[in-house]
Amino acid sequence: MHVKGFGPKLAANISLMTQHLHTDDAAKPVASYSQAVKAGGLVFVSGCIPLNPKTGELVEDSIENATAQCLDNVRNILVGAGLGLEDIVKASVFMINTQDYSGMDKVYASTLLKPYPAREAIFVAGLPKGARVEISVIAKSR
Description:
By secondary structure, the chain is of the alpha+beta class.
């Protein structure tokens, strides 16, 4: 895990410190953004599309497998930050096809534990690299 700290000097309010997080165990960003940013007791994980971090290939054979890969990327970013899926407090799921909702939800519900975090599902015209699903989360840091 590589962490670059930005923000005020340590003598200032430590809760305002911002850290940009990166792990090689999740897909690399496909544009100009950090995999995650830790700030004010929260970790903001950027949208994860279903890219296999080892091959760089998009998982697109089914919405279930695509969702599982997105959540694997989210999990690996959180683990790199010393957290887990149980620390998620809010998730945003972006999809391009309303018919994919039930397949996505089946995998989401079997991967995350009850009580589930707050979540929204947003249907959009397109996603990076032609992905069918993208998931971003906010987690509480420990």
